[in-house]
Amino acid sequence: MDCWGGFSINHYGGIVIGQGAHIGENFNIRHNTTIGHVNGKNPTIGNNVTLGADVDIIGGITIGDDAMVGAGAVVVKDVAPHEIVAGNPAKVIGYTKGHPQI
């Protein structure tokens, strides 16, 4: 796992992060979350990303800078910078500060 500064775990427990994951700065994660590989493809998580509890990110998924993933989300496709996603499968429900549409 590659991880830069500012890694924060809130409500520790049941967190799985695969060894090939790439994680940017100021990453915030909560319990019961899996970030794992599939067929040699690993997730890439940008800077200033927040994940709620019970999130699954598996395979070659990219989570862009300043994105947020809601509790219980199953991320099956890339999340663009500043997107807020939630659900199973995860869908865009809003945008974080700094997004051009705000």
Keywords:
single chain, 102 residues, mainly beta, UDP N-Acetylglucosamine Acyltransferase, domain 1, 4-stranded parallel β-sheet, Trimer_LpxA-like_sf, serine O-acetyltransferase activity, Serine acetyltransferase, Hexapep_transf_CS, repeat
What topology does this entry show?
Layout: E1 2-3, E2 8-9, E3 16-17, E4 22-23, E5 28-29, E6 34-36, E7 44-45, E8 50-51, E9 56-58, E10 62-63, E11 68-69, E12 74-75, E13 83-86, E14 91-95
Parallel strand pairs: 1-4, 2-5, 3-6, 4-7, 6-9, 7-10, 8-11, 9-12, 11-13
Antiparallel strand pairs: 13-14
Describe the structure.
The chain has strands spanning 2-3, 8-9, 16-17, 22-23, 28-29, 34-36, 44-45, 50-51, 56-58, 62-63, 68-69, 74-75, 83-86, 91-95. It is mostly beta strands and 102 residues long. A four-stranded parallel sheet has the order 1-4-7-10, with no helix packed on it. It has a four-stranded parallel sheet with strand order 3-6-9-12, with no helix packed on it. A four-stranded mixed sheet has the order 8-11-13-14, with no helix packed on it. It is globular, with a radius of gyration of 12 Å. The model has no long low-confidence stretch (mean pLDDT 91). This is Serine acetyltransferase.
